[in-house]
Amino acid sequence: MRSSLRIAFLASVFALPASAQAPQVFHRIATIEAQRMLPADRDRARRSIAEIVAATPDGNTLVYVDGDQRGIGFVDITDPAAPRPAGFVPLEGDPTSVTVRGGQAFAVADTSPDKANPSGIVAVVDIAARRVTQSCALGGQPDSTAMSRDGRFLAVVIENERNEQLNRGAIPQLPPGNLTIIPTTPQGLDCNALRRVDLTGLAEVAPTDPEPEFVDINGRGEAVVTLQENNHIAIVDLASGRVTAHFPAGRVTLAQVDGRRDGVIRPTQTLENLVREPDAVRWLDDDRFVTANEGDMVTGSRGFTIFRRDGAVEWDSGNLLEHLAIRIGHYPEARSGARGNEPEGIEVGTFNGQRLIFVGSERASVVSVWRDEGPGRAPSFLQVLPAGAGPEGLLAVPARGLFVAAAEADSPETGLRSALSLYRLGDGPARYPTIESMHGPDGAPIPWGALSGLAADRSAPGRLFAVTDSYYAEAQILTVDATQTPARITASSTVTRDGQPARNLDIEGVATRAGGGFWLASEGNPEREQNRTQNLLLRVSASGAIEQEIALPEALAVPATRFGLEGVTVTGEGAEETVWIAVQREWRDDPRGHAKLLRYRVATGEWGVLHYPLGTTPAGWMGLSEITAVAPDRFIVIERNNQWGGAAIKRLYEVSVAGLTPAAPGAAQVPVVAKRLLRDVVPDLAATGGIVLEKLEGFTVDAAGDAFAVTDNDGVQGTSGETQFLRLGRLTR
């Protein structure tokens, strides 16, 4: 990118928060799981994924491919805020892409018996009748498909993808792929007039094995095709079937990124000559197109690029998607040694006269929205959207002011299912992110994620502290300014032991001390066969240095399980300072359905035990995630199950210890606290328009009496990466 463009762009992005950048923004209004569209005779406990999505011309029905269930699903979005299942059509093979013309859907499917013998079909589906009316053999394994704007041609990318288990996935691996062009008819397709455009001999990487990936068609009837593994791009005239231009996608050098998987987000490295290897591509106009540079065989460039049709790079995002993911807590540290946020999907749509670019970061699980400012100008960043786990299919529906993201990651075991998220254009400000970080001294955003506990400054309203758990190798204490929207992480301190980052800690709770500094609760795992850790209460300085480590007495440590210390709070000060700790689930010496509340008197080192009665759940388990003192003898706890979505239980209970004397550790009789429901938090989480998140982990009440809660995104590993920072206001008794 030209330096003047980049300087101007950086100024425009970081001068203002995302919510202030546009008069109208997209708001997530609904999410529907792909498994809901399955027929009654299908096993919903099996994987079901929404991958590529299209819409009918009126914008009232979504059509998406489900490769795992071997069919296409339909969603009625007449009311986009209340999407409804609208049918499912089985197909031969595993569908990989779909497009729509009039009342017909054209779905391509992989029917290959193995990688060495690729085959596939394109099925024509009557949308109203929900049935297949025609099928054409493609003679190879399809990936992407697109319809020309005049409706005359269907273009199908025949990838004939490589076998990644053969020779470590190195190419060439024949037979080669191609671009297949099929003329349309009023009834569907003219299969006998199918033409194959040879794409061999174009790229330098593996000229005999082009490995085409994605196709899009402009108003001139020209298809742009990415040859991902070859890091090459071709332009094909559909009418003549000729390749009219081709060029390498090029390389990028990124500064201030994290290129090492080590359990710590450190955007301090420079990665040189990263190969773009673009996946999705969309025309911006007849002369420019934009690519999502995912990478496949090698690195990818962790960004997106605007090209001119002659192959000149007009603009490249550089490290901006990486920094965006870090800033909003969506950076996938486990992918640092690979492709980072991994942009895979791209979409372009014109809303209210503004051409918008949507970039799907598969591993960061977000979609960033940018406004195209025209040839020769840098695009403007508008906002970022939470998009489920692993967004791939992106769809703009400008006529209805809608945008759709299909997230393909599906885990029936955990309850986090593949889903389609719907967003509607409306008045600002943006509702996401709800918490983000400022830039640190090095100019990069302060890294964060996996927020596991909250505490409040004792005197400054809106000043909070959060901690990160063991997903990261180094625990952080984060300073949060909740007087701003979104809440801002303004500083970070590493928890240290003897001057070095402390290891083998799983910080799950934080509490502020009257004299300064913190108490931290570190959850142990005594059930590991190797590297067992113990539950610890830590007294740390304001800068995060451990000043005292307090282990549990034997009577508590011996029956402990891996569901250990989870929340911590403090009552009193000086000689009366008392630490209270919530244990997540029952230990081996507890009655079924009862978790421990521990009391620790700082002056004497005396431990005491109370029991908390856990509720029941139809699935999974119930446990405690937080404890916060609101009076010398009254506390608020988070009680939740480990389920997502419709099965989720997330509640705040008030408990009182007035009149109760905690038992000594190991005592046969332990007093049981009474609890009173204060707030069901599921409606608060559901109001975000997404799937109700599993881990409501942090809660606190600030100096002004306002309550806040936060979810833990597990470092974006196996989750949607979404963090919801909830402002609950004054909680009335």
UniProtKB/TrEMBL annotation:
Keywords: Signal
Domain Phytase-like: 446-714
Superkingdom: Bacteria
Signal sequence coordinates: 1-20
Pfam families the UniProt entry points to: Phytase-like
SUPFAM superfamilies: 3-carboxy-cis,cis-mucoante lactonizing enzyme
Protein name: Alkaline phosphatase
Taxonomic source organism: Falsiroseomonas bella
Lineage: Bacteria, Pseudomonadati, Pseudomonadota, Alphaproteobacteria, Acetobacterales
